[in-house]
Design a protein that fits this description.
Chains A, B: This is LacI family transcriptional regulator. 2 copies of one chain form a homodimer. Chain A contains 14 helices and 12 strands. By secondary structure, chain A is of the alpha/beta class. The first copy, chain A, folds into 3 domains: 53 residues, 434 Repressor (Amino-terminal Domain), CATH 1.10.260; 134 residues, Response regulator (Rossmann fold, 3-Layer(aba) Sandwich); 128 residues, Rossmann fold (3-Layer(aba) Sandwich), CATH 3.40.50. In chain A, the strands form 2 sheets. A 6-stranded parallel beta sheet of chain A has the order 2-1-3-4-5-11, with helices on both faces. At the A-B interface, α4, α5, α6, β2 and α7 of A face α4, α5, α6, β2 and α7 of B. Chain A binds a DNA duplex through α2 and α4.
Chain lengths: 349, 349
DNA sequence: TTGTACGCGTTATCAC
DNA sequence: GTGATAACGCGTACAA
C-alpha cells in the first residue's frame, strides 16, 4: 500500500517530498502545480515521492502566499432580532435556503470551490466579516440579504470584495446581483385570477419593506389596476405557513365575499389553504389561490398550488458563475441578471 | 471615523499595529490575544493602534501556526451516481438538509465557529478530503453519510480527524454519532395503526440498504409481529414525494383492502396521500397514514400528517456540541447519543 | 531547466 | 514584562 504517514505523526510536507525525490523544494512545487519547464524525468520522480509519502498540499499555507483560498462564502445577512434567534430556524427549514445551496453547489463543485456558510446579525459581525474577507478568508461572497436596509452590500463594495447578491439590494449600491422580475410574476398571478373571473381579489404579502416583497405588491397592484381593480384587500405575513393562515383569516373576516387571492409565497399559501378549508371555502371553486415560488410545498399542497415559478436554483447557479468570473477578472463591470418568472398552472387557480 | 485602510491598499498587518503603537510585534500579538502579563499602558496603546489602523487579524496566517481554524466542515458523503448528479438537487431541496444546518448553526454560531460545506461523491474526493482535514483545513467534521457502505467514517477515524456522524454508520466503526431510535419510532407508528383498528397494514420504506431506513423497517415488522401481524405488505421508495406516490399505487393494486400504512418519511407520505386521493380513498377513514420526521411537509399536508417526530435540529445541535468538546479534548472517548422519537398525532391517523 | 533565498502574517520560544 | 527570532508550509523572483 502507499506509505501514507501513520496517524498522529507530523504530516509530510513539500520539503519531505523534495527530499525523497532528491530534488529541491522549488522543483517539487513546480511539478505538483503543473508548471511546465520541468524535466519529465524529475516529474516522474516527484509524483512517485508524493505517492510514497502520502503528501497532500496544505491549503492554508498555499493560500497564505497565493492569496487564493478556493472558497466562496455564502453569507446570510440578518437583522438579529435577539440572540436566541427564532427566525433562523425558520429560515433554514424553509425550502428557500436549500434550493439556493443546491444551485450554488451545482456549479461550485465542478470548479472544486468550497462553500463556507456565514451568518451575520449585528453590524459588528458584519464589520468583522468584511475584514476577514479582505484578508482573503474567502475569494468572494454570495449574499443573501434579509433586512430591509442592510449596510452589508455597501460595505462589501467599499471593501472591494468580489460579491454577488441573490435578490437586489434595497438601497441602490453598485453591486452584482441576480434577481427575479417579481413584479412580472405578480402580474401573471393577477392575469390568472382576473382571467378566471374572480371578482373580489385579495393579496397576502410578505414583509412590506423587503424589496422582493414590495415588488410583488406593487406589481400586483399595478396589474390589477390596469384591469379595473383599483383597490385590493391586503394582509401581510412573514413568509411562514402560520402567518399565511392568520392573514387569510383576517382577510376573510374583513371581506367574506373574497373569491380570489394571490399569496406572496407558497408556504403562506399552504397556510391560507388551511384557513380556507376551516372556513368551509372550497379551492378553487369558492376561492382561487395563486402562490409564489413553486417550491416543493406547492406540489405537496392539496389542492396542488397554481404558482409563480421562481427558478431559484438556476439563479443561484448563475450567481455562482458570475462570482467566479468576477473573481478571475477583477476589472469586470458590475452587472445584474434578471430572470423572468412563469406561471405554473395546477389546481388551486 | 476610524482610519481603516483605503480599499485596494495593502491591509494593515500586526507589524503595522506594532509600529504605530511603538511596541514589538510580539507585544501587540499578546495584547490582541488577551494574554496577561502586559503593561496596562501598552495594552491601551496597542488597542488604540488597532483602531487607528483598522487592523484585523489574518485568520489564515494565524491558523497556520496555531493549527486551529475555527471552522468545522459539514460533509455530505454521497455515492455519486453520475457527475451530473440529479440526487443532490433533491437532497438540498429536502427539508432534512436545512434542519441539520439550522441545528448546527444554532450552536456553532455562539462559539464563533464557521461551517464549511463539503460534498464528496467519489473515493478520490474522500481521500483528498481526509488529507485536507488532517492538514488542518477544518478542526473537525460533521458527517452526513448517504451511501449504504461508506468508507468515509473509517477513513476519518484512521486519520484521527475529530468527527461526529448524524445517523449511525452502516458498518461498525469507532466513531462518534448521534442517532434516532428509528426502530422505536416505527413501533410507535405500529401502535397507532393497530390501536385504531386497522386490519391490513402496509409500509412504504426508504432504500432498504441504508441504516436509518432498514431500522425503520425491522422496527415496524417486529412491533407488528408482536401484535399478530406476522407479515406486512412492503413497497419501497427513495424518500421523495414522487416515489411515495408510486409506492402507494403499487401497494394499493396489490392489496386493495389496505386500511393503514406507515410511510418512512413525510415527503413520501405526502405522495402517498396524493395516490390515495386519486384512488378515491379517504384519509383516515378508509386508509390511515402515519409519516416519519415531522418535517414542515407534515403540517402542510392535507390532512395534516400524524407522524413520528424526528428531532433533527436538536440532534444536529447535539452533534455540534459533541464535536466541539471532542476538538477541545482529543482524548475524549468515542460516544454516541440516541434520541427517542415521539408520535405527533394530527389527522391522518 | 534547476536551486537559493525570501516573503506571506502569525504565534511561540527564548533570552533579557 | 518585553523584544528578537525561529517556526508554520508554501510559492516564486532571481540567479545560476
Amino acid at each position: 500500500m502507499s506509505g501514507r504517514a501513520a496517524a498522529g505523526q507530523r504530516l509530510p510536507t513539500l520539503e519531505d517530498v523534495a527530499r525523497v525525490a532528491g530534488v529541491s523544494r522549488a522543483t517539487a512545487s513546480r511539478v505538483i502545480n503543473g508548471i511546465r519547464n520541468v524535466d519529465p524525468q524529475l516529474h516522474e520522480l516527484v509524483w512517485e515521492a508524493v505517492g510514497r509519502t502520502g503528501y497532500v498540499p496544505n491549503r492554508l499555507a498555499r493560500s497564505l502566499v497565493t492569496r487564493r483560498t478556493g472558497t466562496v462564502a455564502l453569507v446570510v445577512s440578518d437583522s438579529e432580532t435577539h440572540d436566541d434567534d427564532p427566525f433562523m430556524g425558520r429560515f433554514f427549514a424553509d425550502p428557500y435556503f436549500g434550493r439556493v445551496v443546491g444551485g450554488l453547489m451545482s456549479v461550485l463543485r465542478r470548479s472544486g470551490v468550497q462553500l463556507a456558510l456565514q451568518i451575520v446579525g449585528t453590524d459588528e459581525q458584519r464589520t468583522r466579516l468584511v475584514g476577514d474577507l479582505r484578508n482573503g478568508q474567502a475569494d468572494g461572497v454570495i449574499v443573501l440579504s434579509l433586512p430591509a436596509h442592510d449596510p452589508l452590500p455597501r460595505m462589501l463594495t467599499e471593501g472591494e470584495v468580489p460579491a454577488v447578491m441573490i435578490g437586489r439590494p434595497a438601497d441602490t449600491v453598485p453591486i452584482n446581483y441576480v434577481d427575479l422580475a417579481n413584479d412580472i410574476g405578480a402580474a401573471l398571478a393577477a392575469d390568472r385570477l382576473v382571467g378566471r373571473g374572480c371578482q373580489l381579489i385579495g393579496m397576502i404579502s410578505g414583509p412590506v419593506d423587503v424589496p422582493a416583497s414590495s415588488d410583488r405588491i406593487s406589481g400586483f397592484r399595478r396589474s390589477m389596476a390596469r384591469r379595473g381593480h383599483g383597490w385590493i384587500p391586503l394582509a401581510s405575513g412573514n413568509f411562514t405557513q402560520a402567518s399565511g393562515e392568520a392573514a387569510m383569516c383576517s382577510l376573510l373576516t374583513g371581506h367574506p365575499g373574497l373569491d380570489g387571492v394571490f399569496v406572496a409565497n407558497d408556504l403562506m399559501a399552504v397556510g391560507a389553504l388551511t384557513a380556507l378549508r376551516a372556513a368551509g371555502r372550497r379551492v378553487p371553486q369558492d376561492v382561487a389561490v395563486v402562490g409564489f415560488d413553486d417550491s416543493s410545498a406547492a406540489l405537496a399542497a392539496s389542492p396542488p398550488l397554481t404558482t409563480v415559478r421562481h427558478p431559484l436554483e438556476d439563479m443561484a447557479a448563475e450567481s455562482a458563475r458570475l462570482l467566479l468570473s468576477r473573481i478571475d477578472d477583477a476589472s469586470m463591470r458590475v452587472s445584474s441578471v434578471i430572470y423572468e418568472p412563469t406561471l405554473v398552472i395546477r389546481e388551486s387557480a
